[in-house]
């Protein structure tokens, strides 16, 4: 089915439907609820032969998801923001069980203060849980990424769960044309889940469980998870090759946009990268040699792909839609670490924080990023973290403080 208009949430539901999942434990939360509503409808009317169960919390939801996956079911579920945090304890257990389920996270900023709009502190808080992470820019990529996620997760070399992330509101409720893959082709790309650990006989039992272990075996098994995660880099490449052959769309670990002759590079991820690409086009029209690198896979960290894309550049700016208090941008720190030993690393690295709580990224803010990054490239001195915040926004906050009785009038 070509060119259907659908939201990012509906695209996620279609990804699960095409994957022919067996079990969907669910708990609603804004802005994810539309995903499980669509799946509940399809399960109810027989369009999807899966068991749909509404749980009493996200903690129960993820516990049920992990247990069903360990028993051999193909499992899908979804959450957002505080829901992901409520399930956090179980994320580490599921990864330790090597249960290759897929969890969609519809990013929403964390409390407090509270907002319903998007940033990435929720999903990036889970980056060390053992879940792989794929971050989508478009509704089409949401569908395709879920199918790729199951293919990668269920590979014997990986056997780890995956989070597929999409931005709340800016993508979850945005309608875009989506080409729905043909189910017969999907079955060629993603065969039924046949976990090797369930091929045991009564005479040769295979146990799955949790044991109290000392440091030596614990370190061994944790490192096995790390190695399996790193295996996902090659498995992702194989899955991308297969997906391109069947469906004509290519997804690499990172996406390079206008990078061939770029002096300065903006690094972004998720739906905000679409605005970043538009800003790159405007800057190019003004004569700036700029490009954009979109990070698609966050775990495992695609260090070599990043090094290749940024080798020899004059300056790099990372626009983080997150904030680690006391440190700054999360992705900036990881990018700086992977470039540290690179002989041809950029002369300057610049850190910008923007889009927190769904705050709009304006043309002027992108222009300021390009100007400051270019200057840093000339001087060889990095900058940041810089919070993108306009004078008009500061004035609005001042007015609110005055109304609350905690601010004062400032000279205009």
Describe the overall structure.
The structure is a single chain. The protein is an alpha/beta fold. It has 14 helices and 15 strands. The chain has 2 domains: 4-197 and 209-247, Thiamin diphosphate (ThDP)-binding fold, Pyr/PP domains (Rossmann fold); 254-394, 3-Layer(aba) Sandwich (Rossmann fold), CATH 3.40.50. The radius of gyration is 22 Å and the shape is globular. The mean pLDDT is 94.
Write the layout of secondary structure elements.
Blueprint: E1 4-6, H1 8-18, E2 23-26, H2 33-45, E3 51-54, H3 58-70, E4 76-79, H4 81-86, H5 88-97, E5 102-107, H6 121-124, E6 132-135, H7 139-153, E7 162-167, E8 176-178, H8 183-189, H9 215-247, E9 254-257, E10 264-268, H10 272-285, E11 290-295, E12 297-299, H11 303-310, E13 315-320, H12 330-339, E14 348-353, H13 363-379, E15 383-387, H14 391-404
Parallel strand pairs: 2-3, 4-5, 5-7, 6-7, 10-11, 10-13, 13-14, 14-15
Antiparallel strand pairs: 1-8, 6-12, 9-11
Helix pairs in contact: 1-2, 1-7, 3-5, 7-9, 8-9
Number of strands: 15
Strand order of the largest sheet: 9-11-10-13-14-15
CA-atom Rg in angstroms: 22 Å
> What is the architecture of the largest domain at the second tier of CATH?
3-Layer(aba) Sandwich
User: What is the helix fraction of residues, given as a range?
Assistant: 40-55%
The SS-based structural class is: alpha/beta
CATH class of the largest domain: Alpha Beta
CATH topology grouping of the largest domain: Rossmann fold
pLDDT averaged over residues: 94
The ordered H/E elements are EHEHEHEHHEHEHEEHHEEHEEHEHEHEH
Strand content: 15-25%
In CATH terms, the superfamily of the largest domain is: Thiamin diphosphate (ThDP)-binding fold, Pyr/PP domains
> What number of structural domains do the residues give?
2
Global morphology: globular
List low-confidence stretches.
none
> How far is the N terminus from the C terminus?
57 Å
* Biggest sheet descriptor: 6 strands, mixed
Quickly count the helices: 14
């Amino acid at each position: 089915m070509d060119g259907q208009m659908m939201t990012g949430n509906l695209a996620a539901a279609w990804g699960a439907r095409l994957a022919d999942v067996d079990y969907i434990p669910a708990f609603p939360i804004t802005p994810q609820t539309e995903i499980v509503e669509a799946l509940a409808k399809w399960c109810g009317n027989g369009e999807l032969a899966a068991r749909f169960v509404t749980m009493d919390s996200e903690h129960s939801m993820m516990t049920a998801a992990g247990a069903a996956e360990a028993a051999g079911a193909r499992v899908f579920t979804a959450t957002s923001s505080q829901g992901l945090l409520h399930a956090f304890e179980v994320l580490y257990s599921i990864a330790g069980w090597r249960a290759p389920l897929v969890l969609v996270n519809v990013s929403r900023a964390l409390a407090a203060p509270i907002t319903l709009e998007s940033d990435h502190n929720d999903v990036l808080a889970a980056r060390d849980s053992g879940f792989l992470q794929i971050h989508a820019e478009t509704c089409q990529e949401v569908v395709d990424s879920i199918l790729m996620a199951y293919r990668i997760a269920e590979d014997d070399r990986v056997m780890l769960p995956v989070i597929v992330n999409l931005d709340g509101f800016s993508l979850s409720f945005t309608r875009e044309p989506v080409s729905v893959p043909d189910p017969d082709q999907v079955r060629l790309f993603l065969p039924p889940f046949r976990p090797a650990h369930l091929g045991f006989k009564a005479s040769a039992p295979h146990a799955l469980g949790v044991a109290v272990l000392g440091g030596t075996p614990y370190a061994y098994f944790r490192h096995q998870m790390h190695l399996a995660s790193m295996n996902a880099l090659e498995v992702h490449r194989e899955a991308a090759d297969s997906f391109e052959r069947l469906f004509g769309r290519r997804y690499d670990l990172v996406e390079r946009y206008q990078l061939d002759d770029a002096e300065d590079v903006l690094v972004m991820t998720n739906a905000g990268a679409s605005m970043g690409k538009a800003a790159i086009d405007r800057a190019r029209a003004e004569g700036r040699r700029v490009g954009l690198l979109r990070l698609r896979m966050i775990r495992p960290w695609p260090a070599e792909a990043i090094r290749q894309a940024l080798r020899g550049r004059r300056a790099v700016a990372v626009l983080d839609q997150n904030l680690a208090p006391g440190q700054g941008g999360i992705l900036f720190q990881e990018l700086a670490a992977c470039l540290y030993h690179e002989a041809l690393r950029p002369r300057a690295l610049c850190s910008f924080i923007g889009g927190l709580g769904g705050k709009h990224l304006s043309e002027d803010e992108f222009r300021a990023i390009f100007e400051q990054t270019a200057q840093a490239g000339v001087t060889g001195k990095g900058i940041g973290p810089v919070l993108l915040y306009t004078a008009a926004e500061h004035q609005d906050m001042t007015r609110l403080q005055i109304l609350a009785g905690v601010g004062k009038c400032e000279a205009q």
